[in-house]
Amino acid sequence: MSAEDPLLPSLQSHSTAQACTAWGSVFTMLNAAIGAGVLSFPYAFRLAGLALGLVLTFICAGLMYTTLQILVQAALRYRVHTYSQVVQRCLGKPVSLVLACITLTYQLGSCTAYMIIVGTTVKRFLVLQNLPWVFMKTRAFAVVSSSVVILLPLSMPRSLGALSILSSLTLYILIYLGILVTTHAIPELEKEKGLGHIKLVDFDHAWRAIPIIVFAFQCHVQGPIVSAELRDDASLNPCAKPGRVKLGLQDKCRLMSTICAISMSLVLIAYCVVGTFGYIEFGSSTMSNILLNYSKDDVMANIAMGGMGLVGIVSFPVNINPGKHALNHLYCWIFNKKNDPTSRSRHVLQTLLIFLVSLSFAVSVDVLGSVFHAVGGTAGALMIFVCPGLIALKPTMVRSLSIALPPEQESVLGPLPYDWWTLAKSFFLVAFGLLLLWNTLAGYL
Fold this sequence. Notes:
By secondary structure, this protein is mainly α. Helices cover 67% and strands 0% of the residues. Mean pLDDT is 79; it is low at 1-18, 399-406 and 408-417.
């Protein structure tokens, strides 16, 4: 991997990385998208109303698929492996520096959210113990102790290979969470004799729901990496024999588009189930972390709480690593330093800085939905909508993908004229991202 990549240099070189099958890529994208955001989906439906919440979820999922497809096709088109390389190749180094700032902000928010989740899980079990001091049962103690004892040591290693074994548990925990909210909500629905206790549409608060939904679907940093690791003879047909004819660029783009569509569809179904039944059960009292609505004596809920705590433990080092590399990229640029991936002291200091900033936010903010709203509506809007929209305006992105030239030879053929669909799609994505950003910032002013 290029040494100038600010985001994920800790990954193995793609020339030596193990190639991934098509279905392996589907589950990799699935695990990348699934995260803490699912806990706030019932709260997002409470803000927007059940019907409007479902509509917004489908719209956001469609837009997320569109922007993810743009990034993946750009990565394949320019033979690069990460989001930052795509941006630098399409939009230039100054914009890649802006992306580093955006990535750092986004990962700080993500790390804060996972600290809150792990701390909440630890607190749930601490209150059940006969501890000698009262302060040991407080949320602040649970967040600080769990972060220092568990999350900080896991954040220090550069290689995350040991955690890859646990990452597959995320899917099973999401399925269990869906079963939990469904089995609890159906008796409530029968008791209420309908949906009279919930709102179907609430336009006044719908804009607050969109950043939460956007945060939950984000997997754009991982998209180019997955496309780079896809085997050249990959196929979604389980009966296909390995070693068949290698895929051309156009075929590989189509396959990655299908992989993105399958993974986004599965995540969409799971999020809609959790959001719908969670909101139906608790109505106007739905909290931004749905698990806090359940009784402390509910065994199924406690198992789900422990499972989401495990998701937080696994996801925290995965999310802090892109933040560290973005911070290192900015440090090297501001102080005109050479990027030295072997510098242990710089790695430790940058890890501690991001850890302490995230910890300070996690201690002071106890509402998970507020974190998702702030991060999804600011850094998420720029990273997920604005940057891909600008990338789609790159002239060579509208060239037929059957013509794959090295970057230094692109000037031989020159760009093709823009088509109206590309222009409309690009301007809509940029406008939507900026509108979401403005609306989020206006809510805090």
